[in-house]
């Protein structure tokens, strides 16, 4: 058996290392096809016709066209068998660890609600039975792929989130068992949770490193890799964007904003705000109110 590297070997023209998603159809006319597969991305194998057997580590599973499976990146043995109609069809949705962790970040409240403090086992593959919604979901992908053009990343993201959100609501205990193999990705996830959950709190960079159980130097290095800038610069920009949004509300008093973005004094907040926007918070609010008034007058 040859070794197949997925997704790049089957569609090299469409594969780009920087993309977080790739959705493509797959068909086979071989009655029984066995492969050694190295998955370089996680994969959702949406089976339409046929039967699929996967051996991953010391475990195996077989699904037919009334189910589908998630496979974590890694090495596995697969066997594809034609249906009684003499056909094997599937839609393959590849996704990165980053994409999965982004989903968990975006819907963290729901994830924690469904997890309910349970210690779920980790699994390199999970399976789901199809229901009416999932069959229609697969059909929607099939129709999209008939356009014979690669789906844009934005569309892939929407379809990925649609599926995961539905599974999170209907089968959370199964979905949340799916593990991310990359330990570095999990560390990045913990950093993002700590950092993005504390933007408006008076938490220092040293304290964020402590929350992540890292030395300050390790935290700064990993932070820069994730966000492309230093922790101090990123936090300043995020706090000031929140402050600017608050100040665009004419009901907000400039003197009340500093506490809402994690500053302990109005003077230090004003200094940072002026550094970012070139004006004081009061002047920024006044300028914004004048712009709004001019727009209203122009409409009259």
Automatic annotation (TrEMBL):
Top-level division of the source organism's lineage: Bacteria
This protein's UniProt keywords: DNA-binding, Transcription, Transcription regulation
GO MF term list: DNA-binding transcription factor activity; sequence-specific DNA binding
UniProt cross-references to InterPro entries, sorted A to Z: AraC_XylS_family_regulators (IPR050204), ExsA-like_N (IPR054015), Homeodomain-like_sf (IPR009057), HTH_AraC (IPR018060)
SUPFAM superfamilies given in the database record: Homeodomain-like
Domain HTH araC/xylS-type: 189-287
Protein name according to UniProt: AraC-type DNA-binding protein
Species in which this protein is naturally found: Chitinophaga filiformis (Myxococcus filiformis)
């Amino acid at each position: 058996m040859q070794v197949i590297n997925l997704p790049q070997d089957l569609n090299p023209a469409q594969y780009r290392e920087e993309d977080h998603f790739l959705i493509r159809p797959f068909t086979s006319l071989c009655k029984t096809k066995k492969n050694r597969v190295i998955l370089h991305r996680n994969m959702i194998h949406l089976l339409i016709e046929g039967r699929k057997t996967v051996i991953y580590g010391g475990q195996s599973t077989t699904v037919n066209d009334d189910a589908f499976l998630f496979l974590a990146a890694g090495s596995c043995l697969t066997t594809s068998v034609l249906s009684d109609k003499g056909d094997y069809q599937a839609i393959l949705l590849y996704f990165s660890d980053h994409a999965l962790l982004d989903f968990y970040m975006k819907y963290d409240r729901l994830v924690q609600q469904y997890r309910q403090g349970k210690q779920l086992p980790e699994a390199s593959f999970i399976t789901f039975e199809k229901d009416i919604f999932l069959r229609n979901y697969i059909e929607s992908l099939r129709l999209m792929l008939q356009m014979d053009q690669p789906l844009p990343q934005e569309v892939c993201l929407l379809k990925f989130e649609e599926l995961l959100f539905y599974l999170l609501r209907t089968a959370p205990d199964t979905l949340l068992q799916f593990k991310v193999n990359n330990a570095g990705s999990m560390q990045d996830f913990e950093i993002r949770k700590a950092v993005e959950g504390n933007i408006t709190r008076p938490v220092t960079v040293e304290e964020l490193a402590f929350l992540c159980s890292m030395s300050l130097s390790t935290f700064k290095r990993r932070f820069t890799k994730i966000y492309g800038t230093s922790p101090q610069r990123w936090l300043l920009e995020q706090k000031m964007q929140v402050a600017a949004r608050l100040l665009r509300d004419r009901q907000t008093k400039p003197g009340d904003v500093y506490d809402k973005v994690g500053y302990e004094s109005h003077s230090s907040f004003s200094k940072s705000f002026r550094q970012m926007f070139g004006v004081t918070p009061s002047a920024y609010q006044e300028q914004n109110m004048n712009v709004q008034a001019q727009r209203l007058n122009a409409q009259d």
